[in-house]
Amino acid sequence: MIRTRFAPSPTGYLHVGGARTALFNWLYARKHKGTFVLRIEDTDAARNTEAARQAIFDGMSWLGLDWDEGPDRSGDLRSPSSSSYYQSQRKPIYDAYFEKLLAADRLYKDGDAYRFRFDRKPITMHDLVCGEVTIDYRDESNTPDMVIKRSDGSYVFHFVNVVDDLEMEMTHVIRGEDHLMNTPKHLQLFEALGAQPPQYAHIPLILNPDGSKMSKRDVGAAVGDYPRQGFLSAAVVNFIALLGWSSKSDDEIFTLIELVDRFSLEAINRAPARFDFEKCKWVNQQHIAKISKETFADLAKPFVEAEKLPITENYAAVISAVKEKVRLLTEVPAAIDFLLTDNAQQDEEAVAKAKANPNSALLPTLADQLANGTEWSAEIAKEAIGEVAAANGAKAGQLMFPVRVALSGRAHGPDLGDIFAILGKERTIERLRSF
Question: Is the pTM of this model over 0.85?
Answer without folding.
Answer: yes
